[in-house]
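[Meeting: bench + compute handoff]

Bench side (C.D.) handed over the final construct sequence. Compute side (W.E.) agreed to return the predicted structure before the next meeting so the bench team could plan truncations. Sequence as handed over:
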Amino acid sequence: MENIELKVEGMHCGGCSGRLNRVLNSLDGVENAEANFETGIVKLSYNGNQVSLDTIKESIADAGFSVK
């Protein structure tokens, strides 16, 4: 299990972070994702054998946010 923090831009409210949480937590291999719009940080626990970091970043971009 890998634990990372990503700086994500584009979250402006609780609805944004909630939507991003749902997107990330629905990915196979993501154990837990917690997005915080106030800090712009997404904390992730994921299994790198099931999902790649690139796939996670693509899912964030597809949801309308950007990883810095």
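W.E. noted at the follow-up: The chain is about 30% helix and 35% strand. C.D. will use this when planning the next construct.
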